[in-house]
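<derive_structure_tokens>
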Amino acid sequence: VGDAEFYCANHKSHGHISLKDAIAKSCNTFFISWGRRHTVMILTEEHIIRCGNRKNRELYKKLDAYCFASKNLHNYANYLIIQCGRISDKLAKGEELLEWETSLLQEINGAIHSYNEGRQDEKCLCPIDSQNGFIANAYFLSWHLKASEPYKEMPYATCAQICLQELCREWKSF
């Protein structure tokens, strides 16, 4: 836009995506190009989006809220993934866990146990221990987080699931 170049995270392209996926991925380029095509949004130097009429302002407010909710869910799930990996590393090194780490470990392992009940072996998750700290599984995270505020703030469960799938895909490629 003008002399400025805008990218999504890690300068990766999502390709052609739907509005629902753009919200879940919080895709900058989708919303910039959509706004330019529909002459609804104008991006200023200060990166403020100004909307022309009342209907467009309401649409912008919804999109802004959806993107904010998507970021919150992404960050919340990412935090859990990182902490489980870090706790596993501490266990592998024989380091003592802090009280909150022990509490988180018990919560996650209890959730993994409940999640695994009635599932086939190939779909079961391993508990977090000194050998395993990886919980980047979109099905588990969606199941575990469905009662959390960040998950409930998403406009649709499908958007939340797509957001978690993208996060897990990023972790698996890492």
